[in-house]
Amino acid sequence: MNKSIALFERAQRTIPGGVNSPVRAFKSVGGTPIFMQKAKGAYLYDADGKRYIDYICSWGPMILGHAYEPVIEAIREKVADSTSFGAPTELEIEMAELIVSMVPNVDLIRMVSSGTEACMSAIRLARGYTGRNKIIKFEGCYHGHADSFLVKAGSGVATFNIQAVPGVTGGVANDTLTAAYNDLSAVEKLVSEHKGEIAALIIEPVAGNMGCILPEPGFLQGLREICTREGIVYIFDEVMTGFRLAPGGAQEKLHIDADLVTYGKVIGAGMPVGAFGGKKAIMQQIAPLGSVYQAGTLSGNPVAMIAGYTLLKELKQNPSIYRELEEKTAYLETGLRNVLDENGVSYKINRLGSMISLHFSNHAITDFKSASEADIPKFNQYFHHMLAHGIYLPPSAYESWFLSNALSYADLDETIRATADFVRNH
Ligand SMILES: *Cc1c(COP(=O)(O)O)cnc(C)c1O
Q1: N or C: where does the chain have the smaller number of CB atoms within 10 Å of the terminal CB?
Q2: Tell me, what CATH number does 357's domain have?
Q3: Whether residue 242 has its Cβ less than 6 Å from ligand 1
Q4: How many domains, the chain?
Q5: pTM score over 0.85
Q6: CA of 343 to the centre of ligand 1 (A)
Q7: Rounded mean pLDDT for each run of 10 residues along the chain, 426 residues in total
Q8: Residues 296 and 338 reside in one and the same domain
């Protein structure tokens, strides 16, 4: 028996379901989750010391690979000066200045400790700013686990087939309106049915929580126009895309301006960090400047800040990283397409930059409905085949894969070979 099986049994005695975040439990793909021990560069090592090529990258943050030396060194040095002060530090200013210098449309930025907190705070701010209650989100988009967002919320919730979420009051759920991703006319309809009632529209500009789904041409721009016309705060949830698609995230890559932007994942280099920021007129409604309350004992934590700061600075100074990541991901895409085509497999690959997902499907994957009509059992078989071959894909068909620049072309070739082996035998 491998150690992960024993650890999972033990974990379930004191941790609900044996995990501290549901998707880790492998419920969607079946089997036992792999317990990790350490990681370096592109590789994870499990409790038995088995090596895996990592395509999750801690769901995004490890964009330059695990245990990235400059980040580890910076943490080591910083932590000796105490782990928290509960008072402001110069490092927080440097972090804010760095972010503002990298991303468009962010005049002011507030640090928090998770993507959930960032999105939850952005919505409260939009409500306070507009004096309106309702928000629009898209089916299959995930914005963290705050009550308002657990309506048609993608991967985690989809994986567990929870339709109406117990614990979320009807009042809260009623203030969340949903539309299908890429369906501009559905948004127009919601807006005209709820004229003057909608505070914010929040979207993953490239969706990563129902597999990777790309915005169709004109979609994000169309939403921009609706929001401007109707006085709705346009929020880009860049928790996945921020600092991954480009130094300036999806706003830069896709040339769309948002009013508020939320960050997480890459921004903390693997430490618990999130942030929300945007236009000055909106952001200055936040306490202590304004009356919209938002706070955090560990917000701007020095150890977390130095980790994120060191990684972001590296990304800013070496924009060629994004070209290299793009080339590697394109190489993987082409390799996968070749073996899938040669074997007559029905599939769709969606990709932008270093976000990519493979769906076993003969129809285009453009929204949550089309994603859920793909051959999910086949993906689950594929997942386990790859895992057995030392390749760690997200344990759900509803997740984007994330590449790191630590991946070598030999790693990519190994991944393509293992996929070829799978399609020949299934
Ligand atoms: C992961 C994620 C979140 C939530 O971030 P946490 O740090 O897990 O709270 C929010 N939005 C998107 C798009 C995400 O992928």
Answers
A1: N
A2: 3.90.1150.10
A3: no
A4: 2
A5: yes
A6: 36
A7: 95 97 93 97 98 97 98 98 97 98 98 98 98 97 94 62 71 92 98 98 97 98 98 98 98 98 98 98 98 98 98 97 98 98 97 97 97 96 98 95 98 98 93
A8: no
Substitution candidate for ligand 1 out of 20, 111, 119, 262 with most atoms within 8 A of CB: 119
Instruction: Tell me the catalytic residues.
Output: 142, 237, 265
Residues 360 and 391 in one domain: yes
CB 158, CB 373: distance < 8 Å? no
Mutation test residue for ligand 1: of 111, 121, 143, the one with most atoms within 8 Å of CB: 143
Residues 90 and 165 in one domain: yes
CA distances from 81 to 75, 310, 343 (A): 10, 17, 58
Here the tokens at position 218 are: 């004109």
Atom of ligand 1 nearest to the CA of 116: 9
Domain boundary among the residues 276, 294, 317 is at 317
Q: Is 238 in the pocket of ligand 1 (CB under 6 A)?
A: no
Q: Is the CB of 177 under 6 A from ligand 1?
A: no
Q: Are residue 303 and residue 175 in the same domain, yes or no?
A: yes
CA distance 386 to 380: 10
Of 240, 244, 299, the residue with max ligand 1 atoms within 8 A of its CB, to mutate for a pocket test, comes to: 240
Phi/psi of residue 299, nearest 5 degrees = -65, 130
Residue 274 CB contacts under 8 Å (≥ 6 apart), including other chains: 111, 112, 113, 114, 115, 116, 117, 118, 239, 262, 263, 264, 267, 268
Residue 276, ligand 1, Cβ within 6 A: no
Q: Is the CB of 116 under 6 A from ligand 1?
A: yes
Q: How far is the CA of 151 from the centre of ligand 1 (A)?
A: 15
Q: What is the span of the domain harbouring residue 400?
A: 3-67+319-425
pLDDT at 173: 86
Helix (H, G, I), strand (E, B) or coil at 292: strand
**How remote is the CA of residue 98 from the centroid of ligand 1, in Å?**
22
State how far the Cα of 406 lies from the Cα of 41, in Å rounded to an integer: 5
**Same domain for 101 and 9:** no
